[in-house]
Amino acid sequence: MNYLHCYWYIQTCTSGVQIPQCLCPKDQTLKEVITKPSMWSPILNSCYLRMSDILPLDVIGRRVEVNGEYATVRFCGAVPPVAGLWLGVEWDNPERGKHDGSHEGTMYFKCRHPTGGSFVRPNIVNFGEDFLTALKKRYVLTDGPDDDEKSCSLKVGSKQVQTIGFEHITKKQSQLRSLQDISLWKCAVSCAGERGRIAEACPNIRVVDLSKNLLSTWDEVILIAEQLKDLEALDLSENKLQFPSDSPTLTRTFSTLKTLVLNKTGITWTEVLHCAPSWPVLQELYLKSNGISISERPVNALQNLRLLDLSSNPSIDESQLCLIAYLPRLEHLLLSDIGLSSIHFPDAEIGCKTSMFPALTYLIVNDNQISEWSFINELDKLQSLQALSCARNPLTKGDKAEEIIIAKIGQLKTLNRCQILPEERRGAELDYRKAFGKEWRKAGGHPDPDRNRPSAEFLSAHPRYQLLCCKYGAPEDEELKTQQPFMLKNQLLTLKIKCSNQPEQQILEKQLPDSMTIQKVKGLLSRLLKVPVSELLLSYESSKMPGREIELENDLQPLQFYSVENGDCLLVRW
């Protein structure tokens, strides 16, 4: 173990007293104190310690756990007038503390929060244990009462050797060597332990979860990782780590690492870039809740990154995102809960594609402050975007928000984790074309291409509108007439009903509300045609697009969802 007694002992006939170096009088060595009994008195008055008290050699900066709460040691020494050795700790949860590191007017250490500090006795502090000890506790069964009684014969050279418990030990070793994916979450791991023991005991580990432990420095992480030659994924979340201020010496320690999770570790963007050259094949990097600001562009670093999670870092804004916009392989970008309200790609004009984020296919911007449609318009400039999640933003609170997003981003295939079906896209685009038709006309739009000159202001607000007119045709005057929504006659659709697989069946004509669900339409047709509802299949042909058939496959959606209009023909099969 990397622990030493930090006390020297003075033996007397009645008691043993441990003297911390930090409590020796100024300019006095431990040897001088021990050999001069006249100097014992002030020390004995301020610090009487039990023989069993043990502290790590490098106690300052160590991560500790006290009664289930996590903290960092900031001070070790006496706190007069109370006798004894004290540790000054800064709690992760500032509400757990009592002060800012001061006592009776003396500042012993500093805290980021006025109530983030406390003084605690060393004997109630858990400094953790080494990696292998924690691993054995988690994955190897505790010795049973009969283990010592088991014996077997082993041939060593020409001699037969009787062994006790050998079979059980071999089984344990086999268990450890076969491990590939391990979780030591909240196991109080604080160090690597004796060099080489991890590699010897469990050489095949590929995935390691070390989140919420007591690791204090990145150097200690390296001591663990260098013994796992096949390490592919490492989770260090909620370890308050001290990272190197300069780029560490390049080694092959992380040469196989593809996924690294550093959520709530306190890492800065500068420290990320310092360490990044040591992660040559890294594909996924999670940096959630670190208070990160992106201060510089990653040059010759993170070039293989496919996923980057910057969620819950409220200092990040759209200007900082430009610094990571040219990571060549970045496909997934997570920006939830950063306070984002706008985004702009200045290199692309309206209707053009940006060169920024060239490989980005999936963007997550949940729980932000997005309230303007210009944000969505900009996303249509991304050349590879196929999936978007933007839940719980002011912009998405309206009933029609998702339909408008689908209409505004032409290549989108998934929205808020739901697949966009072809008929859903068609319905959204037709509704959008109709909803803004009057505005388009007022801005200079016209069905005649030679007279179609919508204003720049309209095109800026609706970059895809012209494309939708080319795709479906310009909205006709009849479509743009204002309907009176409270009068049933203005909501009725006159539809033809044709039985596709029954040519002898007469074509029917019915008036149906546009709010009528497909399920209710099937119920009506079931009664008319004397066919069970479960056997009916519905589709329709638009009078504006003859020869093209659109399936009505979602029973819960109304006719208007599929943009069914007057004069269209319902096709029925069974």
Explained architecture:
The protein is an alpha/beta fold. The strands form 8 sheets. The protein has an 11-stranded mixed sheet, with helices on one face. It is elongated, with a radius of gyration of 35 Å. The relative contact order is 0.04.
* Distinct helical segment count: 15
Question: In angstroms, what is the radius of gyration?
Answer: 35 Å
Order of strands in the sheet with the most strands?
14-16-17-18-19-20-21-22-23-24-25
Q: How many individual β-strands?
A: 30
Class based on secondary structure composition and strand pairing: alpha/beta
Helix content: 10-25%
Shape assignment:
elongated
Q: How much of the sequence is in beta strands?
A: 15-25%
Low-pLDDT runs of 5+ residues are 1-26, 39-52, 146-167, 485-489
Sheet with most strands: 11 strands, mixed
Calculate the mean pLDDT score and round it: 84
Terminal-residue CA separation: 76 Å
Family: Belongs to the TBCE family.
Main location: cytoplasm
InterPro entries: CAP-Gly_dom_sf, CAP-Gly_domain, LRR_dom_sf, Ubiquitin-like_dom, Ubiquitin-like_domsf, Ubl_TBCE
Keywords: Acetylation, Chaperone, Cytoplasm, Cytoskeleton, Leucine-rich repeat, Phosphoprotein, Repeat
